[in-house]
Amino acid sequence: MRLLYLLAVLSVSLYSCADRPESMEDLTARVFNLAESQYSYLADQLDESRFPRSLNPDGTLSTSDIDWWCSGFFAGSLWYIYEYGRSDSTKALADRFTLALEPLVDRPVDHDIGFQIESSFGNALRLTSDSTRYESVIVDAAVKLAERFNPVAGVTRSWDKKKKYDWEFPVIIDNMMNLELLMNAARLFGDDELREVARTHAYTTMKNHFRPDYSTWHLVDYSIEDGSVRRKQTHQGFSDDSMWARGEAWALYGYTMMAEWDGNDDFLEQARHIADLLLERLPEDGIPYWDFDCPGDLRDASAAAIMASAFTRLHTLTKDVRYRDMAEKQLRKLASPEYLAEKGGLHGFLLKHCVGNYPKKSEVDVPLSYADYYFLEALLRFNPQAE
Ligand code: GLY
């Protein structure tokens, strides 16, 4: 009788263990363990003049030089892996690939200097407080970015003249992300001008980039002469009127980040409107199609990772549990075998199924360095005790 009772208790507890979802702490530990070995494998395939970008159509590793807009994300992901695991060898790698970006501040740049420097040097300084090593690059880069500000239009320019396009002063929604470099430098050096450039850019973008439902155009072109809007269009989305998933993710992240740095209710309200539209339109599993209005079933894990990080941050600001629930759903899906690499796979990247530039048929259904970066960031934010 006693034996039967023990067997019954054992089978009930085995059943409930198998049935219980993995805790977010365990999921985070599992992903960071994988990330540590994947990223050291990736580093073994590189020297400091090349940075991992994606996979080529033939499955080989695709890398970039330091000028590509994503060159900072490898160092940034290494910093996040160091933040979780505190391994000295990861820290040394992160430092090496961060300092490799230093020449950027001595050459012509576009708005992506924000992505490049904030993900690498910004995280380096945050985690080490080594101002002698990292601070001057942050301020030099922020000053370069602020030089792209046009006070008449009230925005910083994204790209310089491109022969192929008839733009005068193009600004893409992605540029909201680069404001974090300005806000960080403004805090470090007590520079109100940098902060004002960032705030003005965010206000002008709020006025001109959004449709009434809070979906965003990808690109707004301004007149250099009087700052008026010349055109609103897409560049990487399905059509001018569609909702490109990564653009919407940048918008959500950009306004959430500005609300956090600036404590401004207008930015917070904008972030909530964007978030609520996403809650309404995201598919059941939380992973967006690469463009919400494109027929087909191609997902973009990079947009999901950026959103998960932003939703988590927005939950911290608002305490609205719907945002945290969505972030959890997205992170669980991304950490499942459907999206997450196996150890030793994908040349060391973490996430599958991202879309870089569909209209150009470039980087479609592949890993991307920034997807990994925002995925790791989102997990650290979701589990602040892990930081
Ligand atoms: N232009 C940056 C992106 O592809 O999102």
In short:
The protein is mainly alpha-helical.
Global morphology: globular
Strand order, main sheet: write it out.
Answer: 5-6-7
Proportion in helices:
40-55%
Detail the poorly predicted runs.
1-10
Structural write-up:
With about 375 residues, the protein is mostly helical. The protein has one domain (about 25-380): Glycosyltransferase, CATH 1.50.10.10. It is about 55% helix and about 10% strand. The protein has 13 helices and 9 strands. The protein has helices at about 1-20, 25-45, 75-85, 90-100, 115-130, 130-145, 180-190, 190-210, 245-260, 265-280, 300-320, 320-335, 370-380, and strands spanning about 50-55, 60-65, 150, 155, 170, 220, 230-235, 355, 360-365. It has a 3-stranded antiparallel sheet, with no helix packed on it. Strands 1-2 form a two-stranded antiparallel sheet. A two-stranded antiparallel sheet has the order 3-4. Helix 5 packs across helix 7 and helix 6 packs across helix 7. The longest helix is centred in the N-terminal third of the chain and has 21 residues, at about 25-45. The protein is globular, with a radius of gyration of 21 Å. The model is unreliable at about 1-10 (pLDDT under 50). Glycine binds next to loops.
Keywords:
mainly alpha, Glycosyltransferase, three-stranded antiparallel sheet, 9% strand, binds glycine
